[in-house]
Amino acid sequence: MSIVAGLDSSSAYTRVVVCDADTGAVVKQGYAEHSGERDDPQSWLISLGEAAGGGQLADVRAIGVAAQQQGVVALDSSGTPVGPALLGNDRRMQTAAADLTDALGGRAAWAQAVGAVPQAAHPVSKLRWLARHDPATARQVAEVLQPHDWLVWQLLGRPDRRTTDRGDASGTGYWSAAQESYRPDLVELALGHQVSLPQVIGPADSAGHTPEGLLISAGTGETMAASFGLGVGLGDAVISLGASGSVFAVHHEALTDPSGTITSYADATGMHLPVVRTLNAVRVLRGTAEVLGTDLDGLSELALKSTPGASGMVLLPYLEGERTPDLPHTAGSLHGLRRESMRPEHLARAGLEGMLCGLADALDVLRTRGVQVRRVFLLGAAADLPAVQAMAPGLFGAPVVVPQPADYTALGAARQAAWALSGGGGAPPPWPAAAGQSFEPGDELAVGQAIRQQYTAVREQTYPGAFQAAAAKPSGAADAPSYGQP
């Protein structure tokens, strides 16, 4: 039996899973929080060592590394970081992103070039920000890595060759998923000079071997690794319920979207992951629960006492402004309030329906571009709420799978390691797909679509043509400030 390991280095911790390479069965697990500053790459390396300590990697033959996406580790000519890492969730770069958008000729030019319009999260925006705010440090930058690239390089003993994978590269803003190539001119546009970039290797390729002889696979970003760990494929969409929301699906080609609503990522298998984000998901549920003096479980229980359509009430859930549709300066609003609807259970249901309809709008953005959605994987703690599970299939118009809790990012990294260990090529190892509960739309499909129609009518009356306006946004129009993670 061959043993492989997957590492998930997030913004706060490192998880390690050790698996049977043939079956995917988890043999051992480890965990450690980053003990130092979160923007210190050495703290990532220390927590990796702690999570993998105590013999966790004994008998392991290959390791896959997944890490937080869109961070920048800028190195000087000696391979030393020029300063703290610039993390993916750093919001200071929004103005730099807007400057870059205009500098290339607008949103359509960027979408055509790399499949994404610059946002604060993109490394290309971070390089622009560094050049503007600390030009002396920017001039020292000779090489740019992302967190997963840097960790792989360290594990390999800092060889001359630096590598990355197409999944992580596709989130930089200077690598095109459609063309499978870098745009060095965009790096120079952002930073003011050329730098060395890691070699993009294939999903099943090996980055090299550690001094101890362990194979290190290509590695990838957290989203791509989680998708691989879940076992999603063509026809599958994944909706993640955090404070904000994200919707992505597996697709056979990169999508170009001049409006910037869709960001075109590559995945960890050779396919593509078009992503649409919303600024409002579970924050809508928490806010509604606070108004009603309860928690999420209580909100779910109340909502199930109401009727579909919440007695005519519609909550447009744009509490933090919204990205999909592009309404950055708006606010949430409650519509259809009548005396008979002024009950806690109806407000609870309006909150849940509003959140889910907002995510269904994002899902429809992908559908209108030809992305097939045969089932939806629903992630996040709120996915376990009975009301969410009851409403989501009808509102999404597809079966919903709620996977059992597991370290899917680390599992995806381990599966990639097993693929590379097998010699690469062909299909990935056929590990079991994520186990979980499945919920079918059934008779609720018609009800769900009626709720969507009610919601859409209110949205269109309140913000006429919001989605059409985004699609027709002038190519040179800059993004307004974003209040959530891009």
Automatic annotation (TrEMBL):
Origin organism lineage: Bacteria, Bacillati, Actinomycetota, Actinomycetes, Kitasatosporales
Domain (Carbohydrate kinase FGGY C-terminal) ranges: 238-421
A Pfam family hit: FGGY_N
Record's keyword annotation contains Cell membrane: no
SUPFAM superfamilies membership: Actin-like ATPase domain (SSF53067)
Gene3D superfamilies xref list: 3.30.420.40
Domain named Carbohydrate kinase FGGY N-terminal: residues: 56-222
GO function terms (MF aspect): kinase activity
Protein name, UniProt field: Sugar kinase
Keyword Kinase among record annotations: yes
Keywords: Carbohydrate metabolism, Kinase, Transferase, Xylose metabolism
Family assignment from sequence similarity: Belongs to the FGGY kinase family.
Domain of life per record: Bacteria
